[in-house]
Amino acid sequence: MKERIICAAIKIVETGKVFYGHRHDQCLNSLNGELSWTMNRQEISKVKKVQGFVTTEGRFVDRKEGLKIALENDQVIDKTQNRGNDLYSEDLY
Asked: Where are the domains of the chain?
């Protein structure tokens, strides 16, 4: 079976921890909630993050690679809505 996109995700660059969700705002809310135990808002805002997706192989991919995978698997619901070279969760569901 070909690798497919399964959900939105945000990865913390420094630690590699990945937060999953239906949309990226849900991932961000989870990330902020967890980090708020040990950091204030200013510190959290400085944490380097990458928005992307998780695949059926369990891999985190950025928005560019996500678009490539989604197009190869006919997962993009409206190919006339061009958002550049990045995939957004709204493109999938």
From this structure: 5-91
pTM comes to: 0.92
End-to-end CA distance of the chain: 21
The H-assigned helical ranges of 15-62 are 24-35, 41-45
Looking at the DSSP bridge assignments, the partners of residue 61 are 53
- Identify the CA nearest to 18 among candidates 26, 9, 8: 9
Q: How far apart are CA 63 and CA 8, in angstroms?
A: 9
Structural tokens at position 88: 């957004």
Give residue-wise pLDDT tens across range 38-80. Answer: 999 999 999 999 999 999 999 999 999 999 999 999 999 988 8
pLDDT band (50, 70, 90) for residue 34: very high
The residue count for the chain: 93
